[in-house]
Write a structure and sequence with these properties.
single chain; 306 residues; globular
């Protein structure tokens, strides 16, 4: 393709506002072509950010942000490398949790967020323990953007590292608790909080790890934490071997090139792109918390397939 054609494809992204990259999340196994069409072709960044999320989505950011402030020497703010100022964990946590509580899905969700402060703090402490096990006293930095530039693809693939040293990377995944309303036959009704089990393998998040390995070639680690324990997977695990990670990354690239092909066939038009894919199931968990505006957009894109 000519540079003019590549520029046209990039200009179609984000509801015609344009874009210059994809992320591992966009081309990972949990996003279908239809999801990509809705979220990254028909919607722009502002529309995506306005979509409210329930408590589980922002919980991990509290844990991860505080853990980074307590451990890394530097944190990147965009292209700028900023030295982290020493502070008490309680102060860093209060700041992050305040933001988390201020962005609820609804009133019920806010009550749940307020309940989870102690649990989030315990998960943060476990994340710090895991960090020390991986890096020891090595200096690290957080949130650096890394990218790959696949030959023939119209955009780069970009992601941000949770932690990296000179030789290793660490991706953190917190497991927020499940919270349910409980009405016993006797006694008081109320919310019950249940610890979420840590996965037995890193398969759910292997796309991200594969991308980070492709971008850095540093030894990969992924850590899962809940409020009771943490588990670290490293290159001794079959799924974190270089050959397996390269295979996963290639699968992601294949998906990115399929998206590019559909963009070409549809001339960058979201409705034409949608016509080449299956309509999303609006009753699935992926759309259960979606706004009415987003659901209406799906219906309009797949008008002829309802």
């Amino acid at each position: 393709m000519t540079e003019e054609q590549l520029h046209f494809l990039r200009s179609c992204l984000n509801n015609g506002k344009g874009g210059d990259h994809m992320s591992p999340t966009q081309i990972g196994k949990y996003k279908t072509m239809s999801d990509w069409c809705v979220e990254y072709l028909a919607m722009d960044q502002d529309q995506r950010r306005k979509e409210k999320k329930k408590y589980k989505v922002g919980f991990g950011a509290v844990v991860g942000n505080v853990a980074q402030k307590m451990t890394s020497k530097y944190i990147f703010e965009g292209p700028d490398k900023v030295a982290i100022k020493e502070q008490k964990i309680e102060d860093a946590f209060e700041e992050e949790n305040k933001t988390y509580v201020s962005e609820p899905f609804d009133d019920e969700d806010k009550k749940i967020r307020l309940m989870l402060a102690d649990i989030a703090m315990e998960q943060t402490k476990n994340a710090i323990r895991a960090y020390k096990e991986v890096f020891g006293h090595q200096p690290t930095q957080s949130e650096r953007y890394v990218h790959t530039s696949p030959e023939g693809l119209f955009v780069d693939i970009i992601g941000r590292l949770d932690w990296e040293s000179g030789l290793s990377t660490l991706e953190l995944k917190s497991k927020p608790p499940s919270v349910r309303w409980f009405e016993p036959k006797r006694g008081d009704a109320g919310y019950r909080v249940y610890t979420q089990t840590i996965p037995k393998d890193p398969s759910k998040n292997i796309d991200q790890v594969a991308f980070y390995y492709a971008a850095t070639k540093k030894e990969p680690h992924i850590c899962y934490v809940n409020e009771k324990e943490y588990v670290i997977f490293d290159s001794s695990h079959d799924m974190l071997r270089p050959d397996y990670l390269e295979e996963v990354y290639q699968q992601m690239l294949n998906k990115a090139f399929k998206i590019q092909k559909l963009l070409i066939l549809s001339n960058g038009d979201p409705k034409e792109f949608a016509s080449l894919t299956d309509m999303p199931d609006l009753t699935s968990w992926m759309y259960q918390d979606a706004s009415e505006e987003k659901k209406q957009l799906v219906k309009e894109l797949w008008m002829n397939k309802q």
